[in-house]
Amino acid sequence: MSTATIQKKTACNRDCPDACGIIATIDDGKVVRLQGDPDHPVTQGFLCHRTSRFLDRQYDPSRITTPLRRRGTEFVPISWEEALDEIAAKLIAVRAESGPAAIMYYRCGGTMGILKAVCDYYFERFGPVTGKSGDVCTGAGDAAQMEDFGDEESHDLFDLYNSKTIVLWGKNLHVSSVHLLPIVKAAQARGAKLVSVDPIRHRTADLCDLFVQPRPGGDSALALGVARVFFETGNADPNASQYCDNFDEFRALAHSRTTAEWADLAGVSLESLLALAEAYAQGPAALHIGWGMQRRKNGSATVRVIDALAAISGNIGIPGGGVSYYFKRRGAFDTSFARRDEVAPRLLPEPLFGPAILGANDPPVRVLWITAANPVAMLPESRTVARAIESRELTVVVDSFLTDSARLAHIVLPTTTLLEDDDLLGAYGHHWLIESRPVVQPPAGVKSDYEIIQELAQRTGLAHEFADDIDTWKRRVLRNVADKGASLDDLRRGPVRNPLAGNLLYVDRKFPTPTGKVNLVRTVDPQPTPVTAERPLLLMALSTADAQASQWLASAQQGPATAVVHPEAAPQFQDGGLARLESEVGEMTVVLRFDATQRRDTLLMDKGGWLSAGRCANAIVKAQLTDAGGCAVYYDTPVRLLPVE
Ligand SMILES: Nc1nc2c(c(=O)[nH]1)N[C@H]1C(S)=C(S)[C@@H](COP(=O)(O)OP(=O)(O)OC[C@H]3O[C@@H](n4cnc5c(=O)[nH]c(N)nc54)[C@H](O)[C@@H]3O)O[C@H]1N2
Ligand SMILES: Nc1nc2c(c(=O)[nH]1)N[C@H]1C(S)=C(S)[C@@H](COP(=O)(O)OP(=O)(O)OC[C@H]3O[C@@H](n4cnc5c(=O)[nH]c(N)nc54)[C@H](O)[C@@H]3O)O[C@H]1N2
Ligand code: SF4
Ligand SMILES: [Mo]
Questions:
Q1: What domains are defined for the chain?
Q2: How many other C-beta atoms are found inside a 10 Å radius of the C-beta of residue 190?
Q3: pTM for this predicted structure
Q4: Which residues line ligand 3 (CB under 6 A)?
């Protein structure tokens, strides 16, 4: 290392369960290397593919470093003064003329930093303004776990070492939870059996002792079949009725079809269902429910059936058991300064972003502020989202790049990246908390989200409320844990396990539900999404190891997107050939890749393709809400392949 070479620690703030510790090597003011922190118990010294290569993005020449204003069809650079003066004047005028509900604030998963809540809070204090309801990421499963257990938390990750069986129900470790890989491998080495249930065959299946490949959305049927086997073979917990409400109703539900009928409905062989039941009966058995499966019409009910299976099998409240969906990443932080949805004058459903904004009256949405989000690429019916964004009187996008959404804005404000971030993070895949610190200064002309808010506050009469520096806000949100070993000073020394999180949940089999018992699901529509003879494939645009959502380099967005199908699902096409992919909503051109390990009713694509590059699967995904929790139905759109004209 030269004398100018230093190393600094920070945290990865991306929308990912892992919230890794990062070691950045900086040479003459430039970051030259990113590594995982070996001292972080979950990061274990390595980063994922996408963040290992983040420097390509950090130093991408297309990064924006000055505010931009649309003039006709062009963007022209403007000063921060001009940009913020114009925005502030418009915000004040619209609030006076139409009320604050005519302003909408939208933030998604650009960063998981907890202090982004302070930026949300600015719009609460200025308004409160229109916000979003639901959650396109986890909403349906969140609602399910709250309904069933009265809370949503997970066993400590390392409790998996106590499991005899680990079921990854719809969870793609190699892509979306890479730091779970060493842990499940170590558990396997200690004798645990690993099971994957997924309609798509991913690399994760190769790691598993058992792989079950149901029809997409066939999971309720599969879980009910397994529950029936448990009841019939006496593997259900004989005491379950003491801590579960609706026990008889759930048993009747499981018995409403034969095991063979459940297998058939789930799209698996009877042997496959029985093998899953046998594996899960080898307890203690931990269930890790992935986030993908609940992004379906019956997504919330599906998670509820799996929760019920975990409960009646006696796996709740025991070491090595549990049903993990989410770790309460905000659990340690006190953000009670904001009242959020409670005071919002109006909430528009996130999955219906495009149609809801276009249809909003009383008042119409006149100003739209988008931050840490690329809704055109990431929300269903992208073209409707695009129309909604470009047709406002003023749309502001805060980002580091001219994304599909930023391109349609009136003003774009350049902001910091994860290497310039100053925030606190809790993970949603484990219990560690970590601080992010800037390892380099942002380029001149770039401001952090908080600086932008502070400058806006100065122009809108709220300066005194947003005068505190970041460390003061950090201390404020840490006040519940500061005396328990998680003060800012503690975090500055390294990651700290959330002192409020236990190792196990519900050991006393008491639940924070109204009755104190598990609320077993009573009725469910177990029917998987029907494909039709006309449109025989379900479009599943899923996370890929190569990118975080739509955060690709432009060089990776050239040519048509790839669609993976079983060769028999596309008999009139060639592997490597072009096809038109069509849904009820629209069509796009794709390059086909054949994979005989996939089902014949799925079509797999990457999520996050750009609309401007013709690669956006969400352009043909229908905007719909899940059965509960306001999640988006991303993977239930029937599609067909047509020849290219
Ligand atoms: N590399 C990379 N990592 C990411 C992201 C990314 O874009 N790229 N995105 C991040 C985000 S936003 C989130 S929310 C998290 C989670 O990101 P997700 O991509 O939601 O992660 P998974 O929980 O693995 O859920 C996807 C899995 O669910 C499966 N699945 C889909 N439908 C069904 C079904 O009907 N039944 C069953 N059993 N399985 C089904 C898919 O085949 C896939 O294996 O990860 C994050 N991690
Ligand atoms: N078809 C399909 N669509 C999906 C999914 C799917 O599985 N399939 N997954 C869904 C899920 S789980 C999620 S969570 C959403 C994700 O949807 P989004 O969160 O909208 O996804 P990103 O493309 O990551 O967009 C985030 C933007 O924030 C910017 N950004 C990064 N850091 C900062 C920062 O500090 N400040 C600001 N202001 N901006 C920043 C990035 O440059 C990026 O452009 O997508 C959903 N969409
Ligand atoms: S994206 Fe996730 S796995 Fe990758 S470095 Fe960040 S926190 Fe770790
Ligand atoms: Mo997500």
A1: 68-129+340-418+436-469 (3.40.50.740), 139-328+505-519 (3.40.228.10), 537-642 (2.40.40.20)
A2: 12
A3: 0.98
A4: 12, 14, 16, 18-20, 47-48, 50-51, 178-179
